[in-house]
Amino acid sequence: MAQWSCKQKGCSVASSGRCVDGIEPPSGCPHIVQVAAGKATVSTKAAGRTLRLPGGGVLDFDQASSILRAEPGKILLVAGAQRSGKTTLPLAIYELFNKGPFAGLHFAGSETLFAFESMCHAARVRSENDSPDTLRTEFEAGTHFLHLRLIRDGDIRQPFNLLFADLSGEHYENACNSTEDCKKIPMLRRADRILLMLDGKRLKVPAERAKVFKEARGMLGSALDAEMLTASSQVRVLFAKWDLLADDTAAQSSLQQIEDRLAAEFRSRVARFEFAKVAARPELPTAEVPLGHGLAEILGDASFPPETPVPLPLRLPVPVSDRQADRYLALRLPHLCKEVKAP
Amino acid sequence: MDQQFVDSYRQATLERDDKFLRGRWKLVAEVSSKLSASGALELIRVCLDLPSYDRSAIATLLDAVKDPGPQYARPEITLELRLLAGIIVERFLHEPLLRTTRIADLTAAALLCSRKWQPNITVARPLTPLAEAAFQQISERAVMVRRLPSEAPRIDLTMPTLPTIAIAEKEVKYAFEIPVKVQDRYGEVQIQKTPFSLTIKEVDTASLSEWSKEASKKLQQYANDVMTLVNKKFQEAILLLPSIRSILTEENNILWWLFGEASNTSKKQFSKISLPILYIVIANELNSLTQQTPGPSAAMAYIDRALRSGRSSLPDAATIAELVAVVSADHRPSWQKLMRPQLADLCPIMQSICAGTDMSAKESGRYAMELPATEFTFQLYQELILHRLHREVVG
């Protein structure tokens, strides 16, 4: 149910649901603000016209749905243990777009600018933190979205949307151990891409590697057993914080083993099962591991393929008929015909 | 609920429950079952992201999917709307009860004409199944409307069963006394009565009469039914004759036209007519020879045959620009008169001829049609057929 608050002093719409000016329903009042978890939408109504201004906060289910109804879009579910860099991934992509076009794509808008900015704040100098950080997300599993609207180079008529859903560390851990908990994350089934983050910081520690592998294996196994991942799912396992592992040859050999074992177990069970090395926000960006290392690949994979207008193929069905006149098409232009089975 | 629908719709929703999708499927069924000619054309425009002509024709659909959406999106053509439009058109062309209607023929022809438009934005519903449904519809209907009766009308009336009768007999006993002259011992003649009895079995004539009445009634009814049916079949056969005649005339005329390898209008051989003009001549003349819509299923082959007569090869690509260039200003008004405004945006070649400018230069995406000569002429022929269909359906 919608919750209201009013900008006018003395209005108790928030508690009583009644507008101080007596406007019924209260949504018609120009001073009213609709408040829902993590978002605020200002609604003004005049002469029967409603203008909904975006609040800029994370999108809920309905708002994300609304975007998908309007334009092509894909859902990217970022899953991983706590502090594995799940939220940092979309934030880093957003920050890269702040600097200009990235991976052949142009920023064309976002419904969650405020959310991006507030989450990025901790990573900026202005926050006066010692090092870049990301605010932890506290949302329900896969029910809140960060949004990016992008356009491919020279293709301004075909914008597309990316919606990043975040699976919190707690839900990830529960899902690793239980198919029942997995079933509580419907976004696993709906997501167009699942990005499974393996924390590079933990992978660097030999004692932690087995645990990270076990968690990833548990998560994928549970999701498949719970049929939340199916043969049409597309999964990309990301070795996050790659800047910490780039020079560690010993760790890399272990990662190769992890990769081989996961691939052997899961590649045949989903449509796509791939690996990538990413460093969304490396501590010390280098030429080998720059800011946003590996993100271009993820974006390229998630974006819609360039739409080159291709005329529809002309495949004329051959009618089922005993008349020579109807057979003439197949006799004269067989290369344009498509055989039709007799009913 | 159609699984293909669920899979397609997944692109435009995050809804997890079936209730929403069932509602949308119901909407698809409702709109497709009440689709008007202008509604069908408008759905094609929505699906291909073409400018609207008559949005009110799809008011039910628009009301149902009203969603303010994000500010940047064009609320008039959302992805969901385009998706639904494609699904409705596809269902319309697949539903057995709907696809035998003239509106379905019009829809398929319109899709066929607009299929080369190369829409510039991502199409939610792949256009291939739609185009295939349209081809299938046109092909099957072309055969259906030209089907000749293969046998004489049959009178399938079963003989009435006459009532059975059990012939009842009754025994009638007759008793007589027969007088006999008898001489007694004294020689006197006496009359002595000798009793005599006779039993006869007689038929019950009352039930026989009843049976006769009933049988005669049934036979009379049967005779009436036979006469009514014979009359009806005869009427049908008579009414079918012009259609049969037109089917055979069409086929015969096209054959002789192809055999003659010459234009009916300019009286010149096809090989003597320069190519861009020949596209128009052939499309126009085949359209004139076509008596039933949709046109013959082998129309493309006829066009190919006519184009190649006396020519060793045809150009790989024919364009609107070269066609428009050869149409003189004197001929343009006749095209403009023929052109129906409701179909203008669905018929790229005719629209360009009417406008007298190379539309491909203006809107390269939509009108940049480079087709092999046969396909190009077929496209123009289909546009002419679409106009005829529209006149037949809408008036």
Notable features of this structure?
heterodimer, A: 343 residues, alpha/beta, Rossmann fold, 2 domains, 7-stranded mixed beta sheet, 4-stranded antiparallel beta sheet, 12 helices, 21% strand, B: 395 residues, mainly alpha, two-stranded antiparallel ribbon, two-stranded antiparallel sheet, 17 helices, 57% helix, elongated
Question: Your description of this structure?
Answer:
The complex is a heterodimer of chains A (343) and B (395). Chain A is built from twelve helices and 13 strands. With 343 residues, chain A is of the alpha/beta class. In chain A, helix 5 (169-177) packs across helix 9 (206-225) and helix 9 runs parallel beside helix 10 (249-266). The longest helix of chain A has 20 residues, at 206-225. The termini of chain A are far apart. With 395 residues, chain B is mainly alpha-helical. The two termini of chain B are 36 Å apart. In chain B, a hairpin with a 5-residue loop joins strand 1 (169-183) and strand 2 (189-203).
